[in-house]
Specification:
Layout: E1 4-6, E2 13-14, E3 30-33, H1 34-44, E4 52-56, E5 59-62, H2 79-84, H3 91-95, E6 100-104, E7 107-111, E8 119-120, H4 133-143, H5 148-154, H6 166-183, H7 189-196, H8 200-213, H9 227-239, H10 248-266, H11 275-292, E9 299-301, H12 315-327, H13 334-341, H14 348-359, E10 362-364
Parallel strand pairs: 1-7
Antiparallel strand pairs: 2-8, 3-5, 4-5, 6-7, 9-10
Helix pairs in contact: 6-9, 7-8, 7-10, 8-10, 9-11, 10-11, 11-14, 12-13
Length: 381
Amino acid sequence: MASLYFSFPDGVFHYVCAECTALCCKGYGFAGSLEREMGRLLTLYPELSSAALERRGDILSFGTPAGGCHFLDSDNLCRIEKEHGRALKPGVCTLFPFNVFSLIGKTVVVSPHFLCPLRIHVPARPGAVEGTHALLEPLLRESGFVSDDQTKVGIRPARLHPSEGVRSVLARETSFRDRCGAALGSRSFSRCLRDASADAAKLDRLVTRSAALLGLDAPPAGEARDGIDDTLLAVAPTVRLSLLRLPAQGILLALALAELVVRRVTALAPAPPTPQTVINVISSALPALHLLGCAEVPVTTSRRGRPKSPPFGDPAMVFAGYLVLKGAGGDRDVLDVLEAGMQRIESVADRTAFLVEMGGVIGPSLKRGRGSRVGASADAD
């Protein structure tokens, strides 16, 4: 069986379906193992066969209508579980919301699905909440989703920065996740990032430069922590999975900028942000965060040839795009290129939109240069 890595602190996330009105089972489909439960369900409900959408090895996926799953009864409970027991419930439903999978090497990464309005418990309570690693692992093993055969056809591998090998990335990510778990309720998110950096002073300088490109001010060191810190600490290990193409310092830079964006945007709401809210805000800004996290690493365009500046419809932004694309891929630091190209863009909204769109065109070069450590041969498991 494949080894597992949980991309969230142990004993922090919890949910209670009976108390929830989100109804995540409305219209999102389900999937399960033919060997474990789906073969039996197809016998019990032969009409279900015509709702099949996809086959990946032993896993068969089905569509459901937008108004609710075929098996969602009026009491908002699953008819399959009520009539036949939890063992016949489709595997993806049994695991939800811990059913998002990716690969780092041959290790299956298990992440939360933030369609679920997960709650955070501070301090962590392993064994007392649903997001307990030891409780989830046997369910995952039993489901068939993380078998060696299934990972080959059903799970997409993560792309890593060429200076990193698989074992070093897993060790780094595990350390950061556990650091975040230990910091819950006691330390700020920014302090956790600085503690994880090999050069905290340099990280501070990069944050100040990059924040200015977003039209924001970097916060002064030593600010008092609050509830947003705990939410960021809980979700950051999962967010990092979208940033693995960056080097270690670039990931920390992107997360530091994510905090600035989250705090600014969620100030609009009357209530403290939930994990779901924070993830949605970061996801929207992710291309910009990824681009700014490329500080001090070679970048390249995602399209062949020299792409044109996106059609911003604003002369200053179009010209800035031309200058940035012209400078991308050369010897200059991407922050230097952005600072020079964006001088005529004044508003925070335009700067944010510019960086988000340019982040979809420019990214880190994943080619191994002369100075890159080739980790794949000795560090691949």
